[in-house]
Amino acid sequence: MNETRLRERIARVGESLFRRGLTFGSSGNISVRCDDGGWLMTPTGSSLGELDPARISKLDRDGRCVAGDPPTKERFLHQVMYAERAGTNAVVHLHSTHSVAVSILADVDPLDVLPPLTAYYVMRVGALPLVPYFAPGDKALAEAVRPLAGKHHAVLLANHGPVVAGDSLDDALYAAEELEETAKLFLMLRGQPLRPLSAAQAAELRRRFG
Ligand SMILES: [Zn+2]
Predict the structure, then answer these.
(1) Is-catalytic flag, 121?
(2) Which of 35, 93, 154, 191 could disulfide-pair with 164, CB 3.0 to 4.6 Å?
(3) Which of 74, 177, 178, 180 is catalytic?
(4) pLDDT at residue 137 above 80?
(5) Whole-angstrom Cα distance, residue 210 to residue 21?
(6) CA–CA dist 126, 110 (Å, integer)
């Protein structure tokens, strides 16, 4: 996809996420890898609901901003996913409410926060590790994500939100949406006996669709 169409696609995805309440204010950011080895990234301080395609940041292959507005201050979260996961072509980071809510619960398994409630969650997200809390902009957060990013395309930042990488923008988007809906289900079901997919059922899905 050429850069002009990619810019338009990012703006449409941002508007869709905003309209559905998956992001709000100036939170959340999207990046996509370009054919020239650089990236398009949503600008700092921008609402995903009102992105101007022409002002989306363009970074060169060395990560320097060469066009558009300055990129999101959370750019290092994106860069660590691209650096640690070969084949990553897009990253979506949201402060989506139900995912953030789950990231604040004290009694989740930090190695895998959500149980395998549905087949689509297993197929699109899989295991979801919790990254310890760091203040916004703290570069230590990227270093905490780094060892997990090689093994997981989705991670959940404690008291903050999910970071999801994908082979394409659609892949990253669908996984972020699946994560948010599963977090919502999990919260709806809190306190009730659960019958998640068994380890064998989850393994079968990974074998067939992994
Ligand atoms: Zn954030």
Answers:
(1) no
(2) 154
(3) 74
(4) no
(5) 29
(6) 14
Structure tokens at 164: 């999801």
pLDDT tens-digit map of 50-106:
999 999 999 999 999 999 999 999 999 999 999 999 999 999 999 999 999 999 999
Q: Which two tokens stand for residue 41?
A: 């990234």
Distance 136 CA to ligand 1 centre (A): 7
In sequence order, the β-bridge partners of residue 33 are 39
Task: Compute the distance from residue 193 Cα to the ligand 1 centre, in Å.
Answer: 32
Looking at this protein, which amino acid is placed at residue 210? Answer: G
Residue 173 Cα to ligand 1 midpoint, Å, equals: 16
Strand pairing class (57-59; 39-41): antiparallel
Strand order in the sheet with 130-131: 65-67, 57-59, 39-41, 29-33, 90-93, 161-166, 154-157, 130-131
Closest residue by Cα to residue 122 from 184, 210, 181:
210
Catalytic option among 120, 133, 181, 204: 120
210/201 Cα distance (integer angstroms): 13
Q: Residue 103 Cα, ligand 1 centroid: separation in angstroms?
A: 13
User: In this structure, which amino acid lies at residue 2?
Assistant: N
The bridge status of strand 57-59 relative to strand 29-33 is: unpaired
SS3 140: helix
Q: Catalytic site residue 74?
A: yes
